[in-house]
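Audit log entry. Action: structure prediction of a protein-small molecule complex. Ligand: adenosine-5'-diphosphate. The ligand was supplied as SMILES and no pocket hint was given, so placement is left entirely to the predictor. Protonation state taken as written. Sequence taken verbatim from the request; no trimming, no tag removal. Recorded inputs:
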Amino acid sequence: MVGWLQIQLSLKMNVMDKVLPQQMESNWPEWFEHLKASWPSQAYSSESTQLNIQPECEAWLAEHQSDEIYRIVWINGVLNVSCSSWPVLNELDQVITTLPSYCMRSNEQTAWLKAYLEERSGWVQWLPNRAESLLNISDGICIDLLRPLDRPLHLIHWVDESIPSNHMTLQHMIRLGEGVSLDLCQWSVGSNPVSAEFNVDSHICLAEKAHLNISTIQQLPEGVTLRGLETMCLDAHAQCQATYWGMGASCFEQHTDIRLRGLHSHYALRELIDLNGTQCQHHHVHVHHQAESTDSQQTFCVLGQDRSKGQVLSRVIVDEGAFNIDSKQSARGMLLSPGAQIEVSPELEIYADAVQCQHGASVGALDADALRYLTARGISLDQAQQLLIQALIRNVLPDQPNSKMHALMMKYYEFDEV
Amino acid sequence: MLTLHNVSVNIDDTPILNEFNLEVPQGEVHAIMGPNGSGKSTLSRVLMGDECYQVTQGAIMYQGEDLMALSPEARAHQGLFLGFQYPVAIPGVNNMTFLKTALNAKRKALGQSECDAMSFMQLAESAAQTIGMDLAFLKRDFNTDFSGGEKKRNEILQMLVLEPKLVILDEIDSGLDIDALQAVALGINALRDAGRSFILITHYPRLLELVQPDRVHVMMSGQIVMSGDYTLANTLEEKGYGWLASNTVES
Ligand SMILES: Nc1ncnc2c1ncn2[C@@H]1O[C@H](COP(=O)(O)OP(=O)(O)O)[C@@H](O)[C@H]1O
Ligand SMILES: [Mg+2]
């Protein structure tokens, strides 16, 4: 697809144009001590989150102390970066790109990046020989943000064809302190077919009045199997606006578990799954209304071409005693080829009174009457189909029209606004 | 402009049009009336190239060419326009985006330069003004939550912007209030000229009083059973289609 190239280019541009060398803390045991020392004294108490990530983080850090990993931790507004074998690019505190070092071996696709980094090295270390022997790799990012960040944070996860058959686990922990807002963009992208298996776990905690805008673009190459687990806890008045755009991986299975545990917390998800070939994606989303006056809104759009399979099972659970709940789920599946399969199923599990829950779902082919109408007006069948697909996608475009993701989607689906 | 010669049409092997004949010369307005189910919409759909209908025999010539050889979009490019009896609504597709896409598809096919956003807006706004259509409708999703009459007005708006050569309007006047009916007639009369032909499918003489067609045809069971001038519409209004059953002579 043409659009695929546009994404890659824009990624490269992003990194090439903007990455600047920066001083970084490379003495990592010292940094680790610093991290450990600073955690208990933080203003934001881990007790206010159900996940209680502090012990997990510590255990995780201890466990991985000897591994080749990188970490990015925000402590009281200061970015600390540690990197052993993993190159970490830090673009004015904005873009953090991670590339497994073994991806760098004699690979044309990424050679430019290596050269670019080495030019500015001193802070990037390469351990290519060590990486070759690794078949199980753990990696992850831990972000603990206690002050607002006025710029978006990009996490770019690049998968490359030089990856040997392997199994990789990424674990991300993100915690936003009280009143902190963050724009987080996650990119999981790659180029040529590879055979690889990934697990990506994200645990996110939002303290009171925290605000997270999270957009995820996932376009991994053929041959990649991806399993994702995402948990999120929202305290009182916390908000999360999530946008997900999935176009890739041969097989992708994602479980999302959202817990609205504080009064007036809010979660919104707009998700577009665009599949072709023999790709399959399954997304199970549970949104748990545990506190009063919480609301959630989920909009899914699944496009299936060729012999692809897409499944979205979303469920809203309202706990006993959680009053004044407002929840909406809507899911549309569009079969663009006779061989494609789509299942969308929004469900409700309600144990409380005074709730307002809407759900709707439909799966079908493009409206034949609309296509006939458009062609009768001189619009070619291709263009007519595109108009109808755009009409669907419009429902899941990101809320913020100025966002990068919005612009990319408009370009990829060739929106032409009058 | 348009000639149908012995055209028979089936839907799922059921004959709907039977050796149908019609000639619409350039610059003329012809009305087709007839009871429900007589095949009027079928005729309009066949002319537009709807694949649900099988043409089993006969010939359709449009501007001296075989119409059947053209795809629906090519027919539109060549100046055919069908105002649908039941226009679809397309939520999520902006009215203007749709109309601009249609206009530029036609211009491109005819080797003309594309219409830019500015001049297109002017074109659309002046068309809307001709038929007294609120400009807010231009910004809304195509026909979405439009009333029946608003949808019909929107058909006329498209007709004015696309400037077709042969216009077929299928019950454009059904369900319209008096103002909307006059707006529609205004649109038709605005476009009427020596180079353009119209086929108006209708049940009511009122539109025909406003437009004054050159010929009125009556269709029954897939055939034209009577033709006359526009006074025929009034006769039918008085006497009903039953009167025709015993009176199927060309007048
Ligand atoms: N898609 C279709 N499938 C089956 N029968 C149809 C279809 N469209 C029209 N018909 C039948 O063809 C006949 C003519 O219909 P139509 O052309 O809509 O009549 P009119 O417009 O004159 O009221 C009717 O008997 C109608 O039921
Ligand atoms: Mg009809």
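Audit: result stored. Residues 95-109 of chain B form the longest helix (15 residues). The interface with chain A takes residues 48-50, 71-73, 75-77, 82, 84, 87-88, 90-94, 96-98, 100-102, 105-106, 109, 117, 120-121, 158, 162 of chain B (CB under 8 Å).
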